[in-house]
């Protein structure tokens, strides 16, 4: 009985070794996509880009501590992204986040984690500050949106809401989506 087990064990060992050898020789293995396609093809440290509109006027600035590009889907990950959205002579809107993801076509920028949006005072307009999380940006339209809680402060005015859509081109406008509560200081 021990000889029989030894013969069966040896046959299984030869079968396993033969299967491994055949799998290494198979042309199908060469057709499998490389795992490296999910690896980045380049990265930049201290990245900054300034964009201009058709009239040659600056429209937007994107900066990040680190930019990492992935060729598989042509997307880009950003570490500590910063955006400035310019609107004529008015002070720019400044947006900063913990991290971000940019689609390959540049149409969608997802800002993840805490997001702060600021604008300095100018003329009669007071400074403004917005706190939120997880923002979707359409950079070419200077448009942002979120489904998260939003806190807006300008002077002594305060507004809290859940969900927001905002357009930062002239005329700048903001739509608060639900649970809107505010305090407006009458002067």
TrEMBL record:
Domain of life: Bacteria
UniProt-recorded Gene Ontology molecular function terms: glycolipid transfer activity; lipopolysaccharide transmembrane transporter activity
GO cellular component: outer membrane-bounded periplasmic space; plasma membrane
Coiled-coil annotated residue ranges, if any: none
Keywords from the UniProt entry: Cell inner membrane, Cell membrane, Membrane, Transmembrane, Transmembrane helix
Family matches, as NCBIfam families: LptC_YrbK
Name of protein: LPS export ABC transporter periplasmic protein LptC
């Amino acid at each position: 009985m021990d000889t029989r087990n030894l013969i069966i064990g040896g046959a299984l060992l030869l079968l396993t070794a033969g299967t491994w050898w055949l799998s290494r020789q198979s042309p199908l293995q060469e057709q499998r996509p490389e795992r490296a396609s999910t690896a980045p093809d380049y990265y930049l440290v201290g990245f900054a880009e300034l964009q201009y509109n058709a009239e040659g006027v600056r429209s937007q600035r994107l900066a990040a501590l680190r930019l990492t590009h992935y060729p598989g889907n042509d997307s880009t990950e950003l570490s500590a992204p910063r955006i400035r959205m310019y609107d004529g002579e008015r002070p720019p809107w400044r947006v900063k986040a913990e991290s971000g993801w940019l689609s390959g076509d540049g149409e969608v920028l997802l800002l993840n984690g805490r997001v702060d949006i600021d604008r300095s005072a100018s003329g009669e307009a007071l400074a403004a500050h917005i706190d939120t999380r997880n923002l979707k940006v359409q950079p070419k339209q200077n448009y942002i949106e979120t489904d998260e809680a939003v806190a807006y402060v300008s002077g002594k005015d305060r507004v809290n809401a859940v969900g927001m859509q905002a357009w930062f081109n002239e005329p700048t406008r903001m739509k608060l989506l639900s649970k809107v509560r505010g305090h407006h200081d009458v002067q």
